[in-house]
Amino acid sequence: MTTEKHGFEAEVSRLLHMMVHSVYSEREIFLRELISNASDACDKLRYEGLTNADLLKDAGEFSIDIRLDKETNTLTISDNGIGMNKEDLISHLGTIARSGTSAFMENISGNEKKDVNLIGQFGVGFYSVFMVADKVEVLSRKAGEDAAWLWASDGIGEYTISSAEKAGNGTSIMLHIKDDAKEFLDVYRLRNIIKTYSDHITLPITLISKNEDEKAEEEETTEKVNDGTALWARPKSEITDDQYKEFYHHVAHAYDDPATTIHYRAEGKIEYTVLLFIPSQQPMDLFDPARKTKVKLYVKRVFITDDCEDLLPSYLRFMRGVVDSEDLPLNISREMLQNNPVMRSIKNAVTKRILSELEKKADKDPDGFNEFWKVFGSVLKEGIYEDFERRDQILKISRFETTADKGLSTLDDYVSRMKKGQDTIYYITADSLAAAKRSPQLEGFKAKKIEVIYFTDPVDEFWLQMMPEYDGKKFASVTRGSADLDDKKKDKKKKKQTPEIDALIGVLKTNLGEAVKDVRVSNRLTDSAVCLVADDNDMDIHLERILKMHNKLEGAASARVMEINADNPLIKALGEQATRDGSVDALKDASQILLDQARIMEGDLPDDPVAFATRLSTIMTNSFK
User: Fold this and answer.
1) Model pTM score
2) Is 76's pLDDT higher than 80?
């Protein structure tokens, strides 16, 4: 028998270090994680067996056995599920094979106690075993294969894999319990953990221990511990909040508590049961490009798949839970699910119910809904762009920050606060709220006390193309076109544009050439010297930046309109200089720096940072002569 040594990936090694060296207040959750994994393995084999009966010929009744042995200080969790081959063991146990790996590493704070709490968000629950074990052995044989494999590690920095013998398919995980974790070799302690965390598991969970009573006829005591009834099939009146919470932990493989629970049974032409949860924290794969939903589909209590794009729209991919249909055939394949009329009906009805529940929460618990929105609003807004049928409903409950600084507001809130005679909803798009608030284009609107909405999610740029107006009011970007901020009555006495400003505009146009589309005096600036805006028929500056970042646009950036603040001291000084002979050459560097300054204020870099630095140094040097 040959034994291969492998090193853990860097992320796993770091995680294991946290597990081994941290004192976690609820170490018992390792058992919940292993039982959930075992249940999933059995569900997967049962599903695969629907289309390949040979995989089930030796399976018997699906079950989970937990065997404790105080003499050897071991605890073994076994299942007869799908099992793993050598490649699976390396992939599943040697790496954090989830899209959230990089996000996981970014969220590690350095506080090990705090960081351990992150593990459930990143799909790495198996590694929690090293909180209670100083050595772990995983013996597994994949259904349909003859070879068995033994994976072993002490959780320090490497693991071994060797060929082994195993009678049936499935996985057995043997934990060599640490001296300070022997409480997990106590029958009463284990029974309590299973009842607390895993009572809802539909497979029988059997606890096996050596009989300590010498008079007993049997050497071992065998006890079925869990209730084993599908939680979603029980009446709501019989389910406690703690049971809902633990089922959420199981079905979502998460450590946070659910923020909202939706449990109901639909009866009529199509019958199905729904038990769904809205998490309180973002799953780390929420922004995975695949945008897959993770709700599990069951048919008559038999697991079918957790990868069903026809069960919920992708903008509800944060939902976790199960949908159990009574009308789909048990042998349905993933391919058959596509365009299935029963699935379409379930999807429409469940989506409608979720949005209805969110509407109720927005009305009855605005603070709770605002917390939901801060976590998942950026995802839900994708539905405004994608779901024509429901976009008005989603937009109605959408929340936004505005210059009014009144916290999260709806569009109806904004409309109710509009100034008399205002017929436009003004907004600004940016990469972040802080960047939006810094934008010079807001200055004139703030001075006139005209409220502007901050749109700071990338999807905002796209749904705005689909929804040009709301409640009869057109949307208008403050970074596009000329801002109509003039008070027509007061502007009768408005000062005329001075010769100095006219001269400066001519100099800037000459020096900047095609780098700008036009140069004009701004009525949106009150403090800043300069800003860039898109012409009425041009693409919004922020949208163009997003498309370029994702390689959706080719070529150089579009030329923009430069607006100057005629009342700004710098612009006045440059205007005076522009009336002198030779001003075009004299202001060549200043013209380019003014353009670069406007780009920097937009969050961009100058076209040539080195040239920008050289020009700035020259001007600063000359100012001290």
Assistant:
1) 0.75
2) yes
